[in-house]
Write a structure and sequence with these properties.
Low-confidence stretches: 56-61, 437-442, 445-484
Strand order of the largest sheet: 1-2
Order of helices and strands: HHHHHHHHHHEEHHHHHHHHHHHHH
Strand content: under 5%
Largest sheet: 2 strands, antiparallel
Radius of gyration: 23 Å
Structural class: mainly alpha
Number of strands: 2
Mean pLDDT: 82
């Protein structure tokens, strides 16, 4: 089929997905366009790639300096985000106070300028890293934050997944990338197959959640057509996972989907959810780091060396960076260290450790790993509270959480401007409200009291209480969702 005809068919198909999902939409402000563009660029390519531009200079210099055009785009988005946040500063302050640990972590990252070999690069990358927090906050301060999140991810999914198939099948110069073994790996709208894998994981879990939610609305008039739209994206996601052959993404998607379904069952059984999470992550750790023969990895049909990743881990750890504080925020892969790794692995274009935990250790040492461990523990605690109080939302957070942790086993995902880091921040910050409500109940304050206080406070400012708060404070009402 000629590419032009295929493009027309895919455009009609994308329009059909939006048509199937028509109907009542959440009321969101125009500010959500900012995080939508930010997430689109982080999921796919920088804007310079889409426009056919490229940074000047050699590969190493381009990695250090980046593209001036993309830097300008990032600054514009971040400034626009700050303006949007300043207009709702009364909501931003309390949310930041509930997430002091994230503020302390980013403060430590900034402090690493003092011992970094490239302090200016560290500072510039730290500024850009704040953009992820900004975009998450813009979504969460909406009057209906979950509605804003649904709106962004649904629209991006309807566009990115069909476009990935179109690129892979009919525009190989865009949708495929040459490998060192003289083959072509499918990348779709992303820059490499593992990024395609994390896109399929995160968005696939989201559309599975949407499918299950609509499935339970048995009397809704648009139930069947919406199930068709969401089921189509799930099918495309499964197809793309098979095409890119990313074992981490495939196992991560299957595990996250299973845990999401388990957490969505009524009544909630916290002990069973905890056991399942522990079993999934525990088996992964054993397979990757404890099993000496690599039998569990081989049972999945993969190389027990994880396609050279274990060699990379041994090489980067042999450089003996500062074990306590590392080399500085996002600066390990610069200068002599980068030259050493590329000379040791001349056939690899490498700029990451292919393991999120090792990457954090190299840049921020054990101190950074302790911060990440605290963030993960905080996020999980908040998710479990969310599942008990707002089950439909809590199970989606759990799916995102497991996807992010799975991705870290084989890729460096605790990095700014990555899909996994964005969603992890979204889960940690977004699930904080359930914890605060639970704490208020333990102190003897009823949810109704919190509601009346919140309504009065907002009324004095001439603003209505966000619908998200109203939904969360009705904790004594039974869940309207019947079990599957």
């Amino acid at each position: 089929m000629p590419p032009a005809i295929a493009s027309l068919i895919f455009v009609i198909g994308i329009a059909g997905l939006f048509f199937l999902d028509r109907g009542e939409k959440p009321r969101v402000s125009k500010a959500v366009v900012i995080p939508a563009v930010w997430l689109f660029l982080n999921t796919t390519h920088p804007l310079s790639w889409w426009l056919g531009l490229s940074p000047s200079g050699g590969m190493s210099q381009a990695y250090v300096d980046g593209s001036p055009f993309d830097m300008t785009v990032s600054v514009v988005l971040q400034v626009a985000g700050l303006i949007a946040l300043s207009r709702k500063s009364d909501n931003v302050g309390p949310m930041l106070r509930k997430n002091r640990l994230i503020l302390v972590y980013f403060s430590f990252c900034l402090l690493s300028v003092l011992w970094s070999d490239f302090p200016l690069v560290t500072f510039k990358r730290w500024i850009k890293a704040l953009g992820d927090v900004e975009m998450v906050l813009i979504i969460l301060i909406e009057s209906d934050p979950f509605g804003a999140l649904r709106s962004i991810l649904t629209r991006l999914g309807f566009f990115l997944f069909p476009l990935s198939i179109l690129f892979i099948r009919y525009y190989p110069l865009l949708g495929r990338r040459p490998t060192n073994s003289w083959t072509q790996e499918p990348v779709g709208v992303t820059s490499q197959k593992n990024e395609l894998g994390i896109m399929c994981m995160m968005y696939g879990v989201f559309f599975l959640w949407r499918f299950l939610s609509v499935y339970r609305e048995r009397k809704h008039p648009s139930r069947r057509r919406r199930m068709l739209a969401y089921g189509t994206i799930i099918a495309i996601s499964t197809y793309l996972l098979n095409e890119c052959n990313s074992t981490t993404s495939m196992v991560g998607f299957a595990s996250s989907a299973s845990l999401l379904w388990l957490a969505s069952r009524r009544p909630v059984r916290p002990a069973l959810v905890h056991f399942a999470v522990l079993a999934v992550l525990g088996l992964s750790v054993i397979a990757l780091f404890i099993d000496p023969e690599g039998g569990l990895v081989q049972s999945l049909g993969k190389d027990p060396t994880l396609t050279g990743r274990k060699e990379i881990w041994a090489l980067v750890l042999s450089l003996h960076t500062n074990p306590l504080i590392g080399t500085g925020f996002e600066t390990f892969w610069l200068g002599s260290r980068l030259e050493f790794m590329r000379s040791a692995l001349p056939h690899e274009i490498i700029n990451e450790a292919h393991n999120g935990y090792v990457e954090v250790y190299l840049n921020l040492g054990w101190a950074g790993l302790c911060f990440i461990a605290l963030l993960v523990a905080t996020g999980y605690k908040r998710i479990t509270s969310r599942i008990r109080q707002v089950p439909e939302e809590g199970c989606l957070f759990l799916g995102f959480f497991i996807c992010a942790l799975f991705y870290e086993f084989s890729e460096a995902g605790f990095r700014f401007n990555t899909v996994s880091w964005f969603f992890l921040l979204l889960v940690i910050i977004g699930a904080a409200q359930a914890v605060s409500l639970a704490s208020s109940r333990r102190r003897g304050r009823r949810p109704a009291d919190i509601a009346s206080e919140g309504t009065l406070a907002y009324a004095t400012r001439g603003t209505s209480l966000p619908s998200q708060w109203v939904r969360e404070i009705r904790l004594d009402e039974p869940s309207p969702l019947p079990p599957l």
